[in-house]
Write a structure and sequence with these properties.
The complex is a heterodimer.
Chain A: H1 2-15, H2 20-37, H3 49-81, H4 85-90, H5 96-128, H6 137-164, H7 169-179, H8 182-185, H9 199-204, H10 219-243
Chain B: H1 2-9, E1 12-23, E2 26-32, E3 35-37, E4 41-45, H2 52-59, E5 67-72, E6 75-76, H3 81-86, E7 88-91, H4 103-114, H5 119-127, H6 143-155, E8 161-165, H7 173-190, E9 193-198, H8 201-205, E10 210-215, E11 218-224, H9 225-231, E12 235-240, H10 243-252, E13 258-260, E14 263-266, H11 271-283, E15 288-294, H12 298-306
Parallel strand pairs in B: 4-9, 4-10, 7-8, 8-9
Antiparallel strand pairs in B: 1-2, 1-3, 1-5, 5-6, 10-11, 12-14, 12-15, 13-14
The chains are: A mainly alpha, B alpha/beta.
Chain lengths: 246, 312
């Protein structure tokens, strides 16, 4: 356990002072812009938090969260793939499991920062546009935390790919390619819930009236699928990393 | 033989037994028995692709041997990997850096994993003469500075064993000289055992006390550099009237000679034996035209060894 925390602390330092922070700010900033400009007023009705959240989270959850999961995974393996990076790191007195889990934790921490900033952006835009109904904390927390939770399997999958492919671009290209069909797959209640790229969007959208396709799914089932695939992807990645010849 | 016996008495820091690494049935390293004593600078020599890096990766637990055992500090690597690696510093291939971070931060990242006092960073920077440069981002460093930073990183945990894979690769002559004098200082000042690999004998012979030469995954020579110099000291060449018959006669005396370009080539032997052989040849009616000692440079000898022309 001590080794894990030490590696994590080193990983945090490696990521600091880099442009990764721009990526963390990026999606909340775009969501803020969308929220500030979108036309949400319907004939004299006040904007509700639900509407604001679904407008702002659409692009964020459908596109940015899956892409960022892949970008963070690729970034966290990047320097190790250059030259003898894995050799230098793994010849230190560390266990491979602790290195892998520290890197995974780092990805999830960055995604958590993205989600918190996004939350702040929603609250900020709401205040700006004069939403004066009480803040539905439960719904917000379920959406923000649920979106983060739903990134876990995808981040595990992307880390598994990034650690094994020495290329920086290829896992990213694959990731973006598989993020693109999200809008289509969202219509399918059969495949949708099993698509790791779609899960953040399913989890983040407020569970309101107008459900269709894969959105028409109880939260509990989604969480079961998410946790199941998380364990699977994490185990596969860890197994492969532990056997990796470096 | 005396040399080998003396060496066995000092404690072995690295000892491998019948180490084998196969890739798809092809052996990259086989029957490798390394023996490196405490406080030595051991030069691990061989042409590119001979298995040096593969061996080093096995010593650091980066890849698993197909069979055979590795003992470091007398402990089994498989069972005590973390304890062993805690006392080993390494630089394999060119080290990688977080270019946007300063030398200080790059070392700090490793320091956090090793959990050594912060003051150690200043110490290792001083050892590799990078003090004053530590705040600059590493991407602006020259290759030589990066290599020195890599050695600094390897020294951070105050290792008892330092494993350096081709540390001078790609450096200019002054960079090579710097690294070389640095490595030479370590066993004396810090009491560190050093394993340094290279494909150039000239780089190793000025710092190593012992050399191991590897060719196609097999160790073909392992002894002191002094012994290597002796071996290279030269052979005897005889030009005689009837070379074939003379060779038969010489080999009947156990000289182990060969015929090359019409001359008899005999391995190095004592003055007395040379005198006896000549006397016998003359008595048997051979006319002796020339007796020459052929001195080869250490480099020539090394090339012969790695190209498989000579077994030692």
């Amino acid at each position: 356990m001590g080794i894990f925390w030490r590696v994590l602390s080193a990983e945090r330092l490696k990521m600091s002072k880099s442009f990764v922070w721009l990526l963390v700010i990026g999606s909340p900033a775009v969501a803020m812009l969308i929220g500030a400009l979108a036309n949400m007023e319907e004939e004299g009705q006040m904007i509700t938090w639900e509407v604001l959240l679904s407008v702002m989270s659409l692009f964020h959850a459908m596109f940015f969260l899956p892409v960022l999961s892949g970008v963070f995974a690729a970034l966290i393996c990047r320097a190790e793939h250059a030259d003898g990076g894995w050799k230098q790191l793994l010849a230190l007195p560390v266990t491979r499991t602790s290195v892998y889990l520290a890197k995974y934790t780092m990805i999830m921490a960055l995604l958590a920062a993205v989600q918190l900033l996004f939350f702040a952006a929603v609250l900020g835009v709401g205040a700006l546009r004069g939403v004066d109904v009480p803040i539905p904390w439960t719904m917000f927390l379920a959406s923000i935390f649920g979106g983060w939770l739903a990134c876990m399997p995808l981040a595990a999958l992307q880390l598994a790919i990034s650690q094994s492919w020495s290329s920086f671009g290829a896992p990213l290209a694959l990731n973006v390619t598989l993020t693109m069909p999200n809008m289509l797959i969202a219509n399918s209640s059969t495949y949708g819930p099993y698509d790791p790229w779609l899960q953040p969007m399913l989890a983040m959208s407020p569970f309101g009236e107008d459900r269709f396709g894969a959105f028409n799914l109880p939260l509990e089932s989604l969480i079961t699928v998410v946790l199941g695939s998380l364990i699977l992807f994490l185990a596969v990645g860890l197994f492969s990393f532990r056997r990796k010849a470096v | 033989m005396l040399v080998t016996e003396v060496k066995k008495m000092t404690q072995a820091v690295i000892e491998t037994t019948n180490l084998l690494k196969e890739y798809r049935g092809r052996a990259a390293v086989e029957h490798l028995n390394l023996n490196i004593g405490k406080g030595e600078i051991y030069g691990f020599l061989g042409p590119n692709g001979a298995g040096k890096t593969t061996t080093i990766r096995m010593l650091l637990g980066l890849i698993k041997p197909t069979s055979g055992s590795i003992k470091i500090f007398g402990q089994d690597l498989k069972r005590n990997k973390l304890q062993i690696l805690r006392k080993v510093g390494s630089l394999v291939e060119s080290p990688s850096y977080y270019g946007h971070l300063s030398a200080l931060d790059n070392l700090e990242a490793i320091r956090r994993i090793l959990n050594v006092p912060k003051s150690r960073i200043a110490e290792v920077l001083d050892i590799v003469s990078l003090t004053g440069e530590e705040k600059r981002p590493v991407k602006g460093f020259s290759l030589g500075m990066k290599q020195r930073l890599g050695i600094a990183a390897a020294l951070l945990g105050s290792p008892e064993l330092l494993i350096l894979d081709e540390p001078t690769n790609g450096l200019d002559p002054s960079g090579i000289q710097e690294i070389r004098s640095l490595i030479k200082r370590l066993p004396v000042e810090e009491g560190i055992t050093v394993l340094v690999s290279s494909h150039l004998l000239s780089e190793i012979e000025q710092m190593a006390g012992t050399v191991g030469i590897i060719r196609s995954g097999r160790m073909v020579y392992q002894d002191t550099i002094a012994h290597l110099q002796q071996q290279a000291a030269g052979d005897l060449r005889l030009a005689v009237s009837e070379p074939e018959e003379a060779l038969i006669l010489a080999n009947r005396r156990g000289c182990g000679g060969t015929l090359q370009e019409g001359r008899i080539t005999l391995p190095r032997m004592s003055d007395v034996r040379v005198a006896l052989l000549i006397k016998e040849l003359v008595e048997n009616g051979h006319a002796i035209y020339r007796v020459e000692e052929h001195r080869q440079s250490l480099e020539e000898f090394f090339l012969q060894v790695v190209e498989g022309g000579q077994s030692v």
